[in-house]
Design goal:
CATH topology of one domain: D-Amino Acid Oxidase, Chain A, domain 2
Number of helices: 10
Helix content: 25-40%
Order of helices and strands: EHEEHEHHEHEHEEHEEEEHEEEEHEEEEH
Distance between the termini: 37 Å
Strand content: 25-35%
Bound molecules: flavin-adenine dinucleotide
Radius of gyration: 21 Å
Shape: globular
Length: 420
């Protein structure tokens, strides 16, 4: 059987693959996207749904690793590292440690802010297109602090962010009530970040993929990539469940699994699957749940008003490899966080808890760019906590890399093989 020809083959049907398909198709390329399951079946599905443009600090920050070590043995903590003999994990942690230095954190924050803001602007354009309805709502995020310790930490973060041009409004009780009328009594301080939106990620990915298809792309679900044929530093063939492709260029957008394929291709990248949990709740009354996005900083829990009928709470960053199990202790802590800030949270009409893997790099910056090892491989992965936020800008950058147009954002900090 002859190989299936395509100009660009995108591997992965999450938010990054779908955005890549749309922007590449609009750049006049012939695109085929292959997804091993259904569209939006992994990290892009059950996340917190935030387009977090303003609060752009990376995961690596001074004190985080020390806190993580203190939490090492507490499986109910929001940041948990499962001790295991893994050279990849050891190398990742070593680089993460370096990224925790104040100066490096702020450098990453500036790059994240540029990406996040540009992406927010692209979301506005997409949401204005007829037929692209994905529940895009721009109404900010409120960070809540229940203890002095977290109020001080929150103010410190806000000061750093204001220093790079982010608007952060410190609020007292009266100010909080104006932003979120549903809050429990006794919460006296918080910080409101207006540059923030939320959306329905499943609708987003499905709408973008359908639009790309309508404009000429081919979207193949249940089409797992199973291997590659290489020759003279280039990918010649990509084997899939539906046949073998002979693409001119390959975009690797396989989320947390990208590092496995990168290694197989001989272009390794440092990335860890960082597991997080979420629970989606059906509102019993219109008043139950939040009216806008909340971050309960003391518990590191995000709460999102999905729509009039549902809300979601999510949290946890577990470096435990590919292990989908859900820790009931951590779920209880998440529920405690909800009960601490919102009334009527004792009994919830909740769906099964969900877990997904963030593709996390040591410095929280994604890997976007052409491989230095393999001429026709483009990385679009490693978006960690911000893959939904950075979907559109990633799709646009990938299209610019392919066409050779000037990139909309600085690609140098995003160099894929920066830890090779
Ligand atoms: C609890 C939680 C909360 C989060 N909250 C937010 C948030 O509020 N805002 C935000 O911006 N980000 C958030 N994130 C992060 C965000 O969800 C991810 O960064 C983003 O979804 C990654 O998208 P992706 O397309 O790279 O990966 P994925 O969505 O994981 O997609 C990768 C796809 O590749 C496919 N694939 C893998 N291997 C193969 C193969 N061999 N062949 C074919 N296909 C393959 C997979 O099946 C998958 O569908 C959160 C994550 C979690 C876990």
């Amino acid at each position: 059987m002859s190989n299936l020809a395509t100009d660009i083959l995108i591997i992965g049907g999450g938010v990054i693959g779908a955005c890549g398909a749309l922007y590449l198709t609009r750049a006049g390329r012939e695109v085929t996207l292959v997804e091993r399951g259904e569209l939006c079946g992994e990290a892009s599905r059950g996340n917190a749904c935030w387009v977090a443009a303003g609060h752009s600090l990376p995961t690596a920050a001074p004190g985080v690793l020390g806190q993580g070590m203190r939490w090492l043995l507490d499986s109910g903590s929001p940041f948990h590292i499962k001790p295991r003999p893994s050279l990849d994990l050891a190398r990742w942690l070593w680089r993460f440690r370096a990224a925790c230095a104040q100066e490096q954190m702020m450098e990453s924050a500036r790059s994240l802010l540029e990406l996040n803001r540009t992406s927010l602007a692209l979301f506005r354009e997409l949401a204005a297109e007829p037929g692209l309805d994905f529940g895009f709502t721009e109404d900010g995020v409120l960070h809540l602090h229940l203890s002095d310790k977290y109020r001080q930490a929150g103010e410190k973060q806000a000061a750093l962010l204001r220093g790079i041009g982010v608007e952060a409004r410190s609020l007292d009780r009266a100010g909080l009530e104006k932003v979120e009328p549903n809050l429990r009594a006794g919460i006296e301080s918080g910080i409101f970040y207006p540059e923030h939106a939320h959306l329905d990620p499943v609708k987003l990915v499905e709408a973008l993929a359908a639009q790309a298809e309508a404009e000429g792309a081919t979207i193949l679900t249940r089409t797992a990539v199973t291997g590659f044929g290489q020759e003279s530093g280039r990918i010649r063939t990509v084997r899939t469940a539906q046949g073998t492709f002979a693409p001119r260029e390959v975009v690797l957008a396989a989320g947390a699994w990208s590092s496995l394929w990168a290694r197989e291709l001989g272009a390794p990248i440092l990335m860890q699957p960082a597991k997080g949990y979420s629970v989606t709740v059906k509102r019993r009354t219109a008043q139950q749940g939040p009216t806008r996005c909340l971050s309960v900083d003391d518990y590191k829990v995000a709460v999102t008003p999905l729509d009039a009928a549902r809300f979601r709470f999510s949290s946890t960053l577990e470096l435990a490899g590919f292990d989908p199990s859900i820790n009931p202790k951590r779920l209880r802590v998440n529920r405690d966080a909800l009960q601490a800030v919102l009334p009527d949270m004792e009994s919830l009409d909740a769906e099964e808890p969900w877990s997904g893997y963030r593709p996390l790099t040591p410095d929280s910056l994604p890997y976007i760019g052409r491989s230095e090892q393999i001429g026709n491989l483009i990385f679009a992965t490693g978006h960690g906590m911000l893959g939904i936020t950075q979907g559109p800008i990633t799709g646009k950058l990938v299209a610019e890399i392919v066409t050779g147009d000037a990139p909309t954002a600085d690609l140098s900090p995003l160099r894929p093989e920066r830890y090779a």
